[in-house]
Design a protein that fits this description.
Pfam families: Pkinase_fungal
Protein name: Fungal-type protein kinase domain-containing protein
Number of strands: 27
GO molecular function: protein kinase activity
CATH class of the largest domain: Mainly Alpha
CATH topology of the largest domain: Transferase(Phosphotransferase), domain 1
Radius of gyration: 29 Å
Distance between the termini: 28 Å
CATH architecture of the largest domain: Orthogonal Bundle
CATH superfamily of the largest domain: Transferase(Phosphotransferase) domain 1
Shape: globular
Length: about 750
């Protein structure tokens, strides 16, 4: 979209002409990520989940094989000259195509592909099946200068021989069944991390991928991996020459397992409709509608992907969808639905159950139906079922240390450098990276899917200040509804507030109840804060109160009143700077266990405040990014203690509010200065009252949320649209997004009716 119509203006409410690279483009949720972004994803989230090495009984449980079938294949391999047994049945035999000694990576790849394809053909022949798997070398050495993660491939892959019609238009990751990484001697850590990176890319590119098997080749050794949403595990090392039956067992498993046993999701399938862009396949799934009928939906536009948890964790993915029976209608007559696919921890209530518990309300997204996915009737899709309890038996290793070891020798060229990493040979030293996990059972994740009736845009996609304030106002109404039913949202953020473009009272909707919980059952420890921590306040981030109850109550007794003498000033910082900064002072802060500090709905009202601050600090105007600034990083992107301390200062001190927030707003947001300050004062008053009257006292925050809403409503009424002349880029993008249609109707044999 051209920016040629933008003009420079001296009006402080009109942004000057801007670099188009700063404009937000959000048509697709999962553009190629960079190598640096993949690094950050692995560090932040993926390596928090357990990895188990040398898991006993791995092959026996996950790759069961009839010994008679194995013997049949080994005899056929001997007859074909694929395997040469030991002399007179004694000694170690060898696969003739596979080197007996340590050799180069290229030679190992060539030999393995030759062996795996020969075995696969024989296995399919013996089972009278049409071949459906092909092993090939896909490594592209010339990609080493690229900054895009997807340009780096596994050394070898086993891929499906079928799939979408135009395979040439698809990336290497779309049809991978088994990725294979090959170890260079003394670089085993690098190979392990590369395997994890390729696996993450496959999960990103395969929406129908539930779990993944993979191989790591190390000299004459082979190791089988299994990766799912709860973590990873790997088999003991297999000597390829000494254990030919295990090699056959593994290759047979890849050839003969059912699709769902190989990790595919049978309930999410390629659509029979053809896309205009073959590199973006269309998907279909079935969901129940309001009338109780099961309908087929076309998932035509992916609008969200949880990047940090695409490998392990929730892996939330969201699409816009149409009913398939509506495809012949003109696009303006098709209702847009939203379908959300996610993996949910078993200790968390299912989102659909929470929606049903609180019931419908203005300001809250509408759930049509939800289900726990089943690949086999009567059996829920869960990670415990996939791994069959094997993970607990393995040796837990520290992937973060392996990552650091691999990275430490980097010379700046991807994947991880060229210098030897030390004398680690071919095999991973699990004793070196062992961590004691106390035999704790890994998390179990359930696979869920929900159908929602409301489509819209994240709050940060606002088109005007009026829409920003109105959308926030209505979403808070939705929040009041769920807290009236004893439920806290658990993940207040800008992405969980949906702008609909509709009228009041549903201009903004609160969405995503994945992390919701009953707040009257919350533990005093506050739990480790889940969700978007950038929008959490000091008490949730640090378990330290904004105001110390002893000092507040002492001050109130001295002043003979409940709140400070001049609440209108908004400055509750009654301590001197030395006391305020001394967070180790026993007089100023006490441990949370002594104060029964629990997560409270008021904490989430503060979350809405931080959302508004974040948008006002990180945007120049609607749809325009703002270059990052240090105050923004300190408030929203630093460690928990730093974020908590600064946010505490901002809430209880007007000068800190000016220093960190009001003094750093873009000119477009200057009309919101008084609004933000008024909202801060309400929060400050609430935290003071909680410290003075007691955290659970019913009067501590009574009426404050309504005052919060009144301020938003009054501010909305006072602001102008403030759209610069010709600067309607967000409006234009929203129109384009609303009418986006990727279906090739001619190729699909469909005639769309005229509207």
């Amino acid at each position: 979209m051209s920016d040629t119509n933008y003009t420079t203006s001296q009006d402080p409410n009109v942004p000057p002409a801007l670099d188009p690279r700063l404009t937000e483009l959000y048509l697709f949720s999962s553009p190629p990520i960079t190598v640096h972004e993949m690094d950050n994803m692995l560090r932040r989230r993926s390596f928090r989940y357990p990895t188990f090495a040398a898991v006993p009984e791995f092959l026996e449980v996950l790759f069961p094989q009839d010994d008679r079938v194995t013997d049949l294949i080994i005899r056929a391999a001997i007859e074909k000259g694929l395997y040469q047994p030991g002399v007179n049945g004694t000694g170690t035999g060898r696969w003739t195509a596979f080197p007996a000694d340590r050799t180069s990576v290229d030679t190992t790849c060539d030999a393995f592909v030759l062996l795996a394809n020969a075995l696969s053909v024989k296995i399919f022949e013996e089972n009278r099946l049409k071949p459906r798997l092909i092993w090939e070398i896909v490594h592209t050495p010339h990609a080493s200068a690229s900054t895009v993660e997807a340009d780096y491939t596994p050394r070898v892959t086993a891929s499906t021989t079928g799939g979408p019609a135009d395979l040439s238009a698809l990336g290497w990751w779309h049809n991978v069944v088994v990725p294979v990484e090959v170890v260079e001697q003394h670089r085993v850590e690098r190979a392990v991390i590369n395997f994890v990176r390729r696996t993450a890319q496959i999960f990103r590119g395969q929406p129908n991928r539930r779990f993944l098997y993979g191989l790591v080749l190390a000299g004459q050794f082979m190791q089988v991996w299994m990766v799912d949403r709860s973590g990873s595990m790997m088999s003991e090392y297999i000597n390829i020459h000494e254990s030919p039956k295990d090699v056959i067992r593994v290759i047979s498993g890849f050839c003969l397992k059912c699709d769902h046993e190989l990790g595919w999701d049978l309930t999410l399938r390629h659509s029979t409709l053809r896309p205009l862009n073959p590199s973006r396949p269309l998907w279909e799934c079935s969901m129940f509608t309001n009338d109780g009928q099961e309908e087929v939906f076309v998932l035509y536009h992916e609008i969200y992907l949880c990047h940090d948890e695409v490998l392990h964790g929730r892996a939330t993915r969201v699409w816009k969808a149409w009913k398939k029976i509506d495809i012949r209608k003109p696009i303006q007559e098709r209702k847009i639905y939203v379908i959300k696919d996610a993996w949910v921890r078993e200790d968390i209530r299912l989102e659909g159950d929470t929606f049903n518990l609180v019931g419908p309300s203005d300001g809250l997204a509408r759930l049509v139906s939800y289900r726990v996915i089943q690949q086999v009737p009567g059996q829920d899709d869960e990670t415990d079922q996939m791994s069959q309890g094997l993970k607990l038996e393995g040796v837990k290793i520290d992937m973060q240390q392996i990552f650091q070891q691999a990275e430490s020798a980097s010379d700046g060229s991807f994947p991880m450098g060229t210098d030897p990493l030390g004398d680690t040979g071919w095999l991973l030293d699990i004793d070196k990276y062992y961590v004691d996990h106390g035999r704790k059972r890994p998390l179990n994740f359930r696979h869920t899917r929900a159908l929602l009736a409301d489509f819209g845009w994240s709050l940060r996609r606002f088109t005007s200040l009026k829409e920003l304030l109105g959308g926030l106002h209505d979403a808070i109404r939705g929040h009041i509804h769920i807290t009236d039913h004893g439920i806290m949202h658990g993940d207040i953020s800008e992405s969980n507030i949906l702008l609909t473009g509709g009228p009041k009272p549903n201009r903004g909707l609160l969405i995503d109840l994945e992390m919701a919980f009953e707040y009257d059952k919350a533990e005093p420890s506050l739990d480790l804060p889940r969700g978007h921590r950038a929008f959490m306040g000091k008490e949730v981030l640090t378990s330290i109160p904004v105001f110390d109850p002893l000092l507040v109550q002492r001050k109130s007794r001295n002043d003979h009143e409940v709140v400070p003498a001049e609440p209108s000033s908004g400055n509750y910082n009654y301590l001197d700077d030395e006391e305020l900064d001394d967070e180790s002072s026993d007089n100023f802060y006490r441990e949370v266990e002594d104060m029964s500090l629990r997560r409270h709905p008021f904490h989430e009202i503060e979350g809405f405040f931080w959302v508004l601050c974040w948008i006002s600090l990180t945007r120049e105007a609607p749809g325009v990014y703002r270059p990052p600034r240090e105050p923004v990083d300190l408030i929203f992107h630093s460690d928990l203690d730093t974020m908590g301390k600064i946010k505490g200062h901002i809430i209880n001190d007007a000068s800190s509010m000016e220093e960190y927030v009001l003094g750093n707003l873009a000119p477009y947001f200057s009309p919101l200065k008084s609004t933000l300050e008024d909202l801060r004062r309400i929060l400050c008053e609430g935290y003071w009252n909680r410290a003075n009257l007691g955290y659970e006292h019913p009067s501590a925050v009574q009426g404050l949320t309504e005052r919060f809403l009144d301020i938003l409503e009054a501010s909305e009424a006072s602001v102008d649209l403030l759209q610069p002349p010709g600067d309607n880029r967000e409006v234009q993008r929203r129109i384009y997004d609303r009418w986006y249609d990727p279906i090739d109707y001619a190729a699909s044999g469909i005639n769309v009716l005229k509207g």
